Amino acid sequence: MKVISLNESLKKKFYTFGAIILALLVVLVSRLIYLQLIKGDYYREISMRQAIRLIPIDAPRGEIVDRYGVKLATNRPSFSVDIIKGEVVDSHLNETILKLMDILTKNNVKYKDDLPIYLDENGNPYFNFKNSDEVSVKEETLKTREKAWKKANNINENATAKEAWDILIKKFKIPKDMDPIEARKIMVVRQLMEEQGYNQYQPVEIAVDVDQKTVAEIEEKHLELPGIMINVKPVRYYPYETLLSQTLGYIGRITQEDLKNLDMSKYKLTDLVGHSGLEALYEKYLRGKDGGQQVVVDNYGRLIKNLGTEPPVPGDTIFLTIDKNIQEAAEQSLITTMQNIREGKYGESFPANIGAAVVVDVNTGKVLALASIPGYDPNIFATGNPPKDVVNELFKSRDATADPSPIFNYATQGAVPPGSTFKMAVAFAALDTGVTTVDEKYLDPGIYPYTGQRNWLWPRTQGWVNVSDAIKYSTDTYFYEMGRRMGIDKIVEYAKKFGLDQKTGIELYEAKGVIASPQYKREYYLGLIKSMVKTDTNPDGVITEEQYQKIVEIIDKGNLSDYNTFLQLEKMGIKDTKLQRKLWEMMYYAKHWSLTDTCSAAIGQGDNQFTPLEIASYVSTLINGGIRYKLHLVDKIVSPDGKIVEETKPEVLDRIHIPKKYLDAIKLGMKGVTERGGTASGAFRNLPIPVGGKTGTAEVVGRANYAWFVGFAPYDDPQIVVVAVIYQGGHGSYAGYVARDIFDAYFGLSKNNTGETFNVINLPIR
């Protein structure tokens, strides 16, 4: 046997070990050469891409300010919580999301939630494709959204909510046995990330307007939350909350409908845009240009170096014609006055639950105040995540004329009977057509002999009255007589001259009023009959389209004796006697216009319906001597560098020749309304500035009377017109207290509407 010495054995082991080391070095060097030389550019790019981050800087939305620069809609800094997918290892992504969502949930932080799959009380999934700020949406719109969402997520368009849920569970690698509530939190964030697209280093906003306590907790746990970052961004802010709310409007998340109208090259899907009011109408001006910051970060997303910044460009500033102080006075007075009416502090009590007021510069058409009560606080929409219970209440389906709607602008959209505020238009028409003179006196009979209609003061009468007296005392019978002398066509003609039943031109959406006329009456009742036609969209209809056309022919022929009409209805297949009578009544009203209709129209009743804005335009046109200006809210638009982008100049829509003696007679009557013995004397007691006005008490079926007041000041050189209306306010004189407070604010006088009980026993309360 050959014996190997110990030294030789050690040498052999040494050479073997050395060979292994050498081989490892060769492999290592080869790998380094491969990485450095062959794949060096590739991995250098990957390294740089992970180390350099582009942080978007949201542009502040343009401000909306009053005529003096007082900020009505501005921005405030806030913290947002974002996630960057590229900085989170896929295997830890869901874990990171859950840790973050637990912090947000624990601290009651509202996060973005666009996932259309919700869980019922038993944890079962169901679909809901309404946005957070929507209540009523067309079924067709919801189906379109559902189809688009399923397509984007590769889900069969016929899949149920449970099937879609299971697909997302698998897609996002969520454990099947995870609590559904926790699983949904992951889905919510993962969907937000999916919507971001393929740029995995673009921050995805999860929550905005996060409180400092939550921010501090997230910062403390940053090692456990890779890819989570805190940003500072501007949030819309309305410092006066409900003030001018319907006019300013609100902002919200971009919807499918918005995608059709916006230039999306200027927006991110997570941006907020105007959804109503000026915020929506002036979106293109208010929208700024986003900036960005390029930075180097470490593995935990912490800033190492700033490589450069492109500052954002704010949106334009919109200067309104609104005077914030007058607006405040108008809104507060409506609230106080309605409360006083409900409590009976002016005499009788009435429900008084809706009010509106308009203040207009008579010489330019500038709107100084546009109040609608109740209002809402648009701050609840500022983050894009309004509370659903609040949204449901704000947007619930209702009859806005009976059930107060905070989002409905009663100043621009609330068309209601104007009552006696219409009488000045009729007075001028009577004077201008020559059916009366400024000196002619008419004896109030109490009951108008031609129609049996009563003066409001009946059983007392107002004696001999001329046009000025008739306005001061609101003598109904005088205007019945003027209406009879002129006829309805002249009333309509002159109402149109004052712009009634026409839009005022204001920048907001506005309703167009209605002038009572035979044409409108016919259209109204034909519309009621048309609504009874059975169609695919109206399966409950009781007549056919052919029957409707025959009914129109019968009306046009004019033979509407009840017996003959019933026979014709039966011949065309309408056998039900109750339906026959209902149709005959509507056919009769569609055809017949009576003197009673004309007289009702002459005192602002009947089918007359106008918005406070229309009434303000009409009274301004009258008081300034016949110039009808286009009403406007926006004075100018100014860019961030101070340049005027747009400026609104007074625009004349029409002119009416109003002889001075006619205007003087009408103004004299309006002055008397606010003086001792006038229908609004109580509200204007001790006012040091002479004013003119007119009360209106409009009758509405099934409700307490609507209270109107229109006024102007100063009397000798009018500057402003004020219009106030209170739904179910009872008496027009009560609305005068709102106008008084507005005059006080405009002229810098002390407050009058203190809520004290006024002695109105011996005063007219028309």
- Poorly predicted regions are 45-49, 753-766
The CATH level-2 architecture of the domain at 52-320 is identified as Alpha-Beta Complex
What value does the average pLDDT take?
90
Work out the radius of gyration: 36 Å
% residues in beta strands: 15-25%
CATH class of the domain at 52-320: Alpha Beta
The helix-and-strand class reads: alpha+beta
| Distance between the ends | 138 Å
CATH superfamily of the domain at 52-320: Penicillin-binding protein 2a (Domain 2)
CATH fold naming of the domain at 52-320: Penicillin-binding protein 2a (Domain 2)
Strands, total number: 23
Q: State the major sheet.
A: 7 strands, mixed
Helix content: 25-40%
**What global shape is seen?**
elongated
Number of alpha- plus pi-helical segments: 26
